[in-house]
From TrEMBL:
Organism ancestry: Bacteria, Pseudomonadati, Pseudomonadota, Alphaproteobacteria, Hyphomicrobiales
Organism: Methylobacterium soli
Protein name: Uncharacterized protein
Alphabetically ordered keywords of this record: Membrane, Transmembrane, Transmembrane helix
TM region positions: 76-103, 131-155
């Protein structure tokens, strides 16, 4: 039998609710505090991949048009690689948006309680989090592929362009 008075029970319940509210706010602030940092880093990586592939393709087309080198197979292959890298960069931008949607949905579908554990995952939040992790990894793969295609395209373009700058053999 409990010897707790009704006033003590109300005070204990108020303390538990205050603790739960504190943990709920802490959980929400922790998630929101990390999102801008992660989003900015990812956005910069995607923008850089798109800029490298698109900008270099435009510069190479400008140079090729001037020198009439479009018949060189390495130049054509380099332009194709830059185009594929640009498509991977665009796919990464789309996947980043989808990833943020899934992470936000997972966070919004968590349940808050007044007893420990104060924040609990639901079936929906676990499913959304799984999709978010999957699209996050696909996004990172697209960014790495865009950089890889850029490096390979630089190599192919360099083969042809370096042959133009070498003096002829005597």
């Amino acid at each position: 039998m409990s010897t707790e008075t009704p006033e003590q029970a109300k005070a204990r319940l108020a303390d538990a609710r205050a603790d739960a509210k504190f943990v709920h706010e802490l959980h929400h602030k922790a998630l929101l505090g990390n999102v801008p940092v992660i989003t900015n880093l990812g956005t910069e990586a995607i923008k850089t991949a798109i800029l490298i592939n698109g900008g270099t393709a435009a510069a190479l087309l400008t140079f090729v048009g001037k020198e009439r080198l479009i018949q060189q197979p390495n130049i054509v292959w380099a332009l194709q690689c830059f185009a594929v890298g640009l498509m991977f960069g665009a796919a990464a931008a789309m996947l980043a948006y989808v990833t943020q949607f899934f992470y936000g949905t997972a966070h919004a579908s968590m349940k808050y309680f007044t007893e420990h554990p104060y924040v609990r995952s639901t079936r929906g939040s676990r499913i959304c989090e799984g999709f978010a992790i999957f699209t996050h990894m696909c996004c990172a793969g697209c960014v790495f592929a865009a950089y890889g295609y850029a490096v390979y395209a630089f190599y192919n373009a360099g083969l042809t362009l370096s042959a133009l700058t070498l003096p002829p053999k005597p």
